[in-house]
Specification:
Layout: H1 2-25, H2 29-38, E1 41-56, E2 59-73, E3 81-89, E4 100-110, E5 115-120, E6 126-127, H3 130-162
Parallel strand pairs: 3-5
Antiparallel strand pairs: 1-2, 1-4, 2-3, 4-5, 4-6
Length: 163
Amino acid sequence: MKLSFLTLCLLLLAVTVLSQQQQESWPSLSYLRNDYRSVAVVAHVLIREAEITGRVGGYENWRVAVEVLESLKGRLRKGDVIEYFHGAEAGLTKEYFKGEKIIFLLADYDIEKKTLRYSVLENSTLPYTADRVRKLRRIRRSRSEIRGRRSEVRGQRSEVRSL
């Protein structure tokens, strides 16, 4: 009896630990790379303020103000304070918009105001984990290496043309 109880406890502990590890390592590098390519801005931020700005049907539009802790893509710098809009199903609590997050933002240029208006890529906002930021830094590094190689090739082509 004691042995079966001990075995059951160890099994539950193992399942809990494994599911915890999977949640921390999710999403995969390829999933993050796809979202990274789709947006203008990726940043590790601290949420300062969030409020509902409107409701349509079963959806709410939130205005979220954040401080940038680390820019992973785009022209933002550490310490910048920006706002973006987040559309979500009604019933999302304000608690969701607290703490540190990793955000993926689309950018639209407002011609009248001559400013960028940011909106979140659907289903992309993630809680901060060291593993996720490490993966995003790896993606950023690989993207900059690709750009570096492209500029080298362009330089070599122009040298060949001038000969």
